[in-house]
Amino acid sequence: MSASVAVVVASVLFGSLHVYEGVGGVVLIACLGVMYAVVALRLGNLRAVIVAHVLQDFLAFAVIMTRHLRCA
Fold first, then answer.
1. What confidence tier does 65 reach under pLDDT thresholds 50, 70, 90?
2. What is the spatial distance between Cα 31 and Cα 67, in angstroms, rounded to a whole number?
3. How far, in Å, CA of 1 to CA of 20, rounded?
4. Which residues are within 8 A (CB) of 37 and not within 5 positions of it... i.e. 6 or more apart?
5. How many CA atoms lie within 13 A of 43 on its CB side?
6. Is the pLDDT confidence value at 22 over 90?
7. Which alpha helices (H) appear in 1-72, and where do they start and end?
8. How far is C-alpha 51 from the chain's CA centre?
């Protein structure tokens, strides 16, 4: 299987795991998956992608908590 096919398949699977976010969320996450996969292939490891995903989740959590605390 070529790298391009692997990137597309992995990204679609990655996006489909986020179906709870709706169709727009799935598409956005799948696109993010393509970006992560390309970075991982270029660098030859997953370290940068893991760090990027952790930072993304942390920032999303911080934004959600900030909004929640303003409403409380």
1. very high
2. 26
3. 30
4. 6, 7, 10, 11
5. 12
6. yes
7. 3-16, 22-43, 47-71
8. 11
Number of domains in the chain: 1
DSSP conformation class of 2: -
Residue 48 vs residues 20, 55, 57, 65: alpha-carbon distances, Å: 26, 11, 14, 26
The domain of 46 spans: 3-71
Q: How many C-beta atoms surround the C-beta of residue 71 within 10 A?
A: 5
A 10 A CB-CB count for 33 gives 22
Do residues 15 and 30 make contact, with C-beta atoms less than 8 angstroms apart? yes
Exposed, middle or buried: residue 37 (CB in 10 Å: 0-12, 13-18, 19+)?
buried
